[in-house]
């Protein structure tokens, strides 16, 4: 019982650190993508890949906002085989991305080379980039994207806290589109 209570209190504490105006900014970006018929590309590894699939599906189905996550095994293995795992996201973006699209990169530790290479590509091409990280405040992905309007960093070294709060932020921004009643 004590562990569960401590766990939930830590989760609440981390949620309380989220700035409402940042979630509102993310909601505005999603709305702008819909209005201008732009796409949202979302990438993650492991649990973060599952988050990117969930968010992408909600954007597509519920709000008719074009979104892709490229979590198909055949796509990832083909691009990784030809370009290396460190470059598969960057090479995917080179094919599908247009100047007015938005890229969201989710990396709990912020140290994944495929995410870092994709971020560098977006910055070079002046693509709007939103990052989600945790663990070290000085992680590479967060540091690379320090000029971004939106860079969500969760002050935890626990994967489940970081990933669940990333998903919480993204789904809150999506629900904020139509102000769901609760």
Could you give the topology of this structure?
Elements: H1 2-16, H2 20-36, E1 40-44, H3 47-63, E2 67-68, H4 73-83, H5 88-96, E3 102-106, H6 113-124, E4 128-133, H7 140-144, E5 150-153, H8 159-178
Parallel strand pairs: 1-2, 1-3, 3-4, 4-5
Report what the structure shows:
This protein is α/β, with parallel strands linked by helices and 182 residues long. It is built from eight helices and five strands. The protein has helices at residues 2-16, 20-36, 47-63, 73-83, 88-96, 113-124, 140-144, 159-178, and strands at 40-44, 67-68, 102-106, 128-133, 150-153. Strands 2-1-3-4-5 form a five-stranded parallel sheet, sandwiched between helices. The relative contact order is 0.17. The mean pLDDT is 94.
Number of helices: 8
Strand content: 5-15%
Give the neighbour order of strands across the main sheet: 2-1-3-4-5
Approximate shape: globular
Unreliable spans:
none
Q: Over all CA atoms, what is the radius of gyration?
A: 16 Å
The ordered string of helix (H) and strand (E) elements is HHEHEHHEHEHEH
Give a quick account of the main beta sheet: strands, pairing sense, barrel closure: 5 strands, parallel
What is the overall pLDDT average?
Answer: 94
Helix content: 55-70%
- Return the structural class: alpha/beta
Oligomer: single chain
For the terminal residues, how far apart are their CA atoms? Answer: 29 Å
Number of strands: 5
């Amino acid at each position: 019982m004590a562990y569960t209570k401590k766990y939930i209190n830590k989760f609440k504490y981390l949620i309380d650190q989220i700035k409402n105006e940042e979630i509102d900014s993310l909601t505005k970006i999603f709305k702008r993508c819909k209005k201008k018929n732009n796409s949202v590309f979302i990438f993650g590894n492991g649990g973060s890949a599952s988050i990117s699939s969930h968010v992408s599906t909600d954007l597509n189905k519920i709000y008719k906002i074009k979104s892709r996550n490229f979590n198909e095994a055949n796509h990832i293995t083909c691009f990784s085989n030809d370009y290396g795992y460190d470059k598969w996201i960057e090479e995917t973006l080179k094919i599908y991305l247009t100047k007015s699209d938005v890229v969201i990169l989710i990396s709990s530790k912020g140290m994944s080379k495929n995410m870092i290479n994709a971020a560098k590509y977006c910055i070079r091409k002046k693509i709007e980039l939103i990052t989600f990280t945790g663990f070290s405040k000085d992680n590479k992905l967060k540091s690379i994207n320090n000029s971004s309007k939106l860079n969500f960093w969760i002050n935890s070294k626990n994967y489940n806290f970081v990933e669940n709060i990333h998903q919480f932020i993204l789904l809150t921004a999506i629900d904020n589109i139509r102000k769901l009643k609760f």
